Amino acid sequence: MLNSRVAGADIKSKSPQAPLFFECLENWRRYAGYKSLTEIRGPVRIFTAFSSWCISCSILDPAQVSKILFFTWLDSLKLGHNTKIKLIKVIRRILRLAFEEGIISKPALYNVPVPKLERRSRKILTEEEMNRIWTLLYGPRKRKLSVKIKRWRVIYNLALLGLRLNEILQLRFSQVGGDSFTTRVKMGKIRTFPIDTYLREALLDWTLVCENEDRLFNVDKSTLSISFQNLLKASGIMRESYCSLHLMRHTVATRLFAATRDMRRVQRYMGHASIETTELYIHEDEIEQKESLEIIRGVGKGGDKDGL
């Protein structure tokens, strides 16, 4: 039985039907392919909050929750639009699985509609900023490589593969040998990533630093995020808002599409299930601005040439 004390809620002591909720959660965990409770901390909090609310409303069976009542509760949380969508998807997935496993009757939320994601105005790294990072990591230097630079090289090269923060943290040295490595990504899928010369060199240097270590980075999420922030600052990249490592996924998708104009290729590289998701990662406005400037400069040069 899973630990019931999550997000400050002791559900087991409040309802005799509590095992139902945890059985739903345990089935969803197995379905998603996660190994332990700690790997699904976010969904656990979401489902715990949902089941706590059900109990407070004297609803012992989550299948009894109507769509109107559900969205009333959702609006009371005062969450952002995209956060609400994630919450709806998690709860709907758990309830669907519980129904398919025969644990509960068909829930009213089985076909609850999921609103469309809002397009975020997330900034990507410009070509100049990427060149600054490259110069910092691989430019000429008088001294030998510091541990900090070695760490940043590994993080940056893995981010160029489109790996997420969690996926980088779970990597082990035993996985990253040869010309490619295989790892579990979002939703339990297995993907294979190539290892090029730059990544191989970075991993080799980092192996010497982390002798007798099992994981590439034996740290938590916040520590790795701070390390990426320090990389940006050291490269002279200053932003008004916080830049997470996920910024690199948007940057990689946009730059790859700008170079190839092949949406399917970008989708395969990013590992997206649908091309609609890939479109959210591509910031065409920034691509169009650069191309428009090149066209204008070309016209201007042509005019000068004709004038001569």
Q: Would you write up a description of this structure?
A:
This protein has two domains: 5-111, no CATH class; 127-289, hpI Integrase, Chain A (Orthogonal Bundle), CATH 1.10.443.10. The chain has helices at 18-32, 41-56, 67-76, 81-100, 127-138, 147-159, 165-169, 197-209, 221-234, 247-260, 263-270, 275-281, 284-307; strands at residues 5-6, 9-10, 180-184, 190-194. With 308 residues, the protein is mainly alpha-helical. Residues 1-18 and 303-308 have low confidence and may be disordered. It has a two-stranded antiparallel sheet with strand order 1-2. Strands 3-4 form a two-stranded antiparallel ribbon. Strand 3 and strand 4 form a beta hairpin.
Indicate the CATH architecture of the largest domain: Orthogonal Bundle
Q: How many domains make up the coordinates? A: 2
| N-to-C CA distance | 83 Å
The CATH homologous superfamily of the largest domain: Intergrase catalytic core
**What shape does the CA trace take?**
globular
Task: Return the CATH topology of the largest domain.
Answer: hpI Integrase, Chain A
Question: How would a crystallographer describe the biggest sheet?
Answer: 2 strands, antiparallel
Q: From the alpha carbons, calculate the radius of gyration and give it in angstroms.
A: 24 Å
DSSP strand count: 4
Low-pLDDT ranges: 1-18, 303-308
Give average pLDDT, whole number. 77
Number of distinct helices: 13
Classify the secondary structure makeup into a structural class.
Answer: mainly alpha
Neighbour order of strands in the largest sheet: 1-2
